[in-house]
Amino acid sequence: MSIEFLTNLAAVAGVCIVAVNIIVEVLKSIWLKAETSRPLAVVVVSEIVVFFVVYAYCVLENASFSLMLGAGTFFGGFFVAYGAMFGYEKLYGELIKSLEKFLTRN
Fold it and tell me: Which residues contact 62 (CB under 8 A, 6 or more apart)?
């Protein structure tokens, strides 16, 4: 993986997190009345946003949407939901901590 790819991936994830936050805030003011339903709304909206972004990428690049890409998109939606619920700093801190643990183990 090149540094350009990782930079673009982080930028797209950041835009998805911001989009999820905006959509959930609008839903919260219109439809969601209980605070307990916000985490569920964040997860559902983040999955929809990430699937839409990956599908749009596949259409633009004439790529096929395979099973593995679908699974990666599903788990990527959880990263976006985590970032939307707890913020960028905690998300990237946890990712760096787990990468350091993985690299020191090998």
Answer: none
